[in-house]
TrEMBL record:
Gene3D superfamilies: NAD(P)-binding Rossmann-like Domain
Chain ranges passing through the membrane: none
Source species, domain of life: Bacteria
InterPro entries: NAD(P)-bd_dom_sf, Sc_DH/Rdtase_CS, SDR_fam
PANTHER family per UniProt: ALCOHOL DEHYDROGENASE
UniProt protein name: SDR family NAD(P)-dependent oxidoreductase
Family label: Belongs to the short-chain dehydrogenases/reductases (SDR) family.
Keyword Oxidoreductase applies: yes
Keywords on record: Oxidoreductase
Keyword rRNA-binding: no
Amino acid sequence: MAIILITGATAGFGKACAEKFAQNGNDLIITGRRQERLNDLQTTLEKQYGIKVLPLAFDVRDQKTVSTVLGGIPENWKKVSVLVNNAGLAAGLSSIEEGDLNDWEEMIDTNVKGLLYVSRAVIPWLIDQRKGHIINLGSIAGSQVYAKGNVYCASKAAVAALSKGMRIDLLPYGIKVTDVQPGAAETEFSLVRFKGNEDKAKGVYQGLKPLSAEDVADVIYYCATLPPHVCINELEITPLQQASAYYYHRV
């Protein structure tokens, strides 16, 4: 049994990861901005799988709160084996000259700075144990920039670079780092990007069988349960009908 810390666990990849790790007998620290959803997930997973869940409601963009909340948890909960840096989002889809500055701020603060804030709080725990695994949720967009994706793509390119940097810096401590890069996956992602416009969100996946949150969670779980001497540094996953950020076969 291990302790798994998952950010952004109230929906999408994060929630699916929580369910996958709980199914396999792991205790969880789950974080997110929506307290009610965290509490509901805690109740469900504890009842269904007999594991322990510690729900922590905070916004990863708030450095002081991240440091205070994570620093203040009981010592026995700090024996984290896997950190899944999942919290992230896309906001808007605009050409660079028309970009919304608030959207830019939100993406950079969440996808880059939030990942750093949480990692900075947790990495000392892993170093103390001389083992652990950090799994960062990147994106195919981090290496393949698409039209109007500008700042979102840049934020995920930063995740890719940070993952490589973490891997190098943490090498002496036996800590694994993996950058998981999904392609088209149908979660709340597009609904958030388009500010709740369901028609636009559905249009992204028209003619496709996209990845599900569970598909990505399965891959993350696989990466996290390999033998101690095996580390997947970077993994790109797409649906069959998507060959890259640009090439789809819609039917």
